[in-house]
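ok so i was messing around last nite and threw this chain in just to see what happens. nothing serious, just curious
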Amino acid sequence: MRPLAERMRPAVIDDMVGQRRLLAEGSALRRAIESGHVHSMILWGPPGCGKTTLALLLARYSDAEFKAISAVLSGLPEVRKVLAEAEHRFAEGRRTVLFVDEVHRFNKVQQDAFLPHIERGTILFVGATTENPSFELNSALLSRCRVHVLEAVSAEDIALALRQALADTGRGLGGQDIRVSDANLSEIARAADGDVRRALTLLEIAAELALEEGGEITEATLVQVLADRTRRFDKGGEQFYDQISALHKSVRSSNPDAALYWLTRMLDGGCDPIYLARRLTRMAVEDIGLADPRALQMATDAWDAYDRLGSPEGELALAQLTIYLASTAKSNAAYAAYKSARRDVAEHGTQDVPLHLRNAPTRLMKSLGYSKGYQYDHDAEGGIALDQTGFPDAMGEREYYQPVDRGMEIKLKEKLDRLRAARAQARSRRDGDDPARR
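result:
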């Protein structure tokens, strides 16, 4: 009555598919498992990659009792009960492999409950998580465990597991005479998206349908079984942030094809298109800036278009924007200038506005010198009062904005270079230090 995925769980290391790097012959973890001298650990990897199976093998090879709890279903009372049983078992000379599934869902107090038992060796702690342990687990628990990273299983390795299930007469489908072509088996493996458990479940469903239709898993069978295939995506987890990072960096690297791929992946996974519109607008400001001022307008237009059209039509506006942002000239000069200005504001504190820049709407303010000495730029030669500072007196002049030699900033750079040189010369003349007179 057990599901096929549970029946086909590997009994020895060599039966596992995937994880060649972690469990290769001579690897540290494999040597530890085979010798029975295992350590407490965190297994970090996507669903269906073998975390539970690996924990079971740890217990089997070390001749330890295997106990499993789920952080989703268990609270602190259940944890304390299991730990008390492990202590009693330890006193009798036998260790316990305690497997904690979804360990990242335990809070700090619950995680701390394991610490003294790990230190005394009462339990061999094996925590499984799909989330980055650095963010989700407290440092005390991490310091007592070694983190092993498991990878999604390749379609080729999943296909191997499916063939094993079809051939196994004791635990699998070997006695049912199920026939399936290599192409259709590979289609199931790809649809599983790196998850061996999911692949075996799909195969089991397909086999049940095939038995009603002559015993062969055909393309028509797969149409029914794989109709609602989905990709792995966690709207609030690390995959989400990894993918938005990939999208942003692909735009920054001027790779429209990669950027469009990551945008589509996120939309396919159910990411909120408004979130993507906001992030794309941020890219237009941060990474394109004044090299192409049209980018910001296009970003707000695409955002507005999605608001008006909704899904799926509005997603095309986001795709068009992504391609444009990745293809156009890039500059973070305005972004860098803003950060430099923020540093100066934090460092220099509340500086007074120079008198000549202050507004003077009343007679008293004029008598106090407000606006005195201000030069109206439109009346100055060339439309700019070159020897007039715009900074607080205690700071002196600053140059935050350094345009790059790309896009529209080429022209801005040429103009600002000339203007800054002219201002420096005008200030020198005003201060009696005219290089021309020297």
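not much to say yet. DSSP finds 20 helices and seven strands in the chain.
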